[in-house]
Amino acid sequence: MSTATIGAPAAAPAREGRIGLRANLRHIGALARRNMLQIKQDPESMFDAVIMPIIFILLFTYVFGGSMAGKGHEQEYLNYLVPGLMAMQGMNIAMAVGTGVNDDFKKGVMDRFRTMPISRSSVLIAKIVVEVGRMLIATTILLVMGFALGLSITTTPLHLLAAVALSMVFGASLMWVFILLGLSLKTPQAVQGMAMIILMPLQFGSSIFAPTAKMPGWLEGFTKYNPLSNLADASRHLMRGGPVAHSVWMTLAWAVAITVVTAPLAVSKFRSKT
């Protein structure tokens, strides 16, 4: 063996640009399976998806329902609340993605990916795929609890599925925002703190918990353009009837805009860190 061969550096992993679509999909599938196995080994990580929907629906229905709809009319408020909680649930699950990405860097998991001939974006997309699955579980539990408490749908099962799908699409777009935060901030605690600063005004300054007509004028203006209001109203109209086109298109427009802006930034940040 020649000295030139001995001294030659090891071949670098294949560049991301040379990886085809089929290989990318295979990588995403393998990484998604890895993430699901992590959940299987740590079932406590599913508490937010399993327990929180039950707590939210019981808390808001029976603590605020009487005040909002009048004592004895909690079921009316339940029908208003559940579509809004579907929107809120997506944001809570999305927040966990950012802390998870940040924690993976702290544990050195990403160092292993650095040496593999895989697309950097496939690591992030695989996380989103698994988190969308967790979001679907949380939404299913929320709806099951809602029906058990008296939730009624005045449209069709297809409209209900459309409301769930819309929540999944918007939730997936928000995950890119929190992934970017997870890649930009130093600790999971910092990611969680920043996420709460974003979440609180969006959640409570929306039509999730109460109609916006009785809010102060300046706040009503904010809620009109709040994407969570559009999502909550779209889900509400899909499940209970009403004009749905504007709210649906506004929600989809927000989802596309958020993804187009934050996904490339997140992938670029991930490449620079790995």
UniProtKB/TrEMBL annotation:
Which GO MF terms does the UniProt record name?
ABC-type transporter activity
InterPro entries tied to this protein: ABC2_TM, ABC2_TM_bact-type, ABC_2_transport, Nod_factor_ABC_transporter
Where does the UniProt annotation locate this protein? Cell membrane; Membrane
The protein here is known as Transport permease protein
**Species in which this protein is naturally found:** Streptomyces eurocidicus (Streptoverticillium eurocidicus)
Q: Which PANTHER family match?
A: NODULATION PROTEIN J
Primary subcellular site in the record, as a coarse category: membrane
Q: How does it sit in the membrane?
A: Multi-pass membrane protein
Q: Where is the ABC transmembrane type-2 domain?
A: 44-273
Q: What does UniProt list as this organism's lineage?
A: Bacteria, Bacillati, Actinomycetota, Actinomycetes, Kitasatosporales
Concerning its family, UniProt says: Belongs to the ABC-2 integral membrane protein family.
Among PROSITE patterns, the record links this protein to: ABC_TM2 (PS51012)
Q: Which residues cross the membrane?
A: 46-65, 77-101, 122-148, 160-183, 190-210, 248-267
Sorted alphabetically, the Gene Ontology cellular component annotations on this record are: ATP-binding cassette (ABC) transporter complex
